[in-house]
Amino acid sequence: MVLLKKGTKLYSIIRLKCPRCQEGNLFLTQNPYNLKMFDKMCPVCGEDYEKEPGYYWGAMMVSHATTMVLAVVVHITIFYFYGWETAPHITSLLTILIILVPVIFRN
């Protein structure tokens, strides 16, 4: 498939490769739950990941949308079992979001 050939942006996004050289992995470790290194990025080609202000605005919006969809699904599920009780909603949502923070951060 032409869209997934090496050298395309889609290839880098799907395979989590360095956007410049596409040789090294974007993150040093493939395990998002290695909390000491879950945000460390691979400097194979010297790519500077500190972009100008506003560069990560789109990523922030996608992360927010993902979190909101997850929150709505959890809310509907908990509402089905517990009704309007507050404690199960807050406890369930916080637990799930804390567990999934590394995964949402990387996506």
Short synopsis of the structure:
Helices cover 50% and strands 0% of the residues.
Descriptive notes:
With 107 residues, the chain is mostly helical. It has two domains: 1-49, no CATH class; 51-107, no CATH class. It has helices at residues 9-15, 57-82, 86-106.
| Major sheet | none
Alpha carbon gyration radius: 18 Å
- Write down the overall mean pLDDT: 79
Number of helices: 3
Could you give the count of β-strands? 0
Short descriptors:
107 residues; 3 helices; elongated
Question: What is this structure's SSE topology?
Answer:
Elements: H1 9-15, H2 57-82, H3 86-106
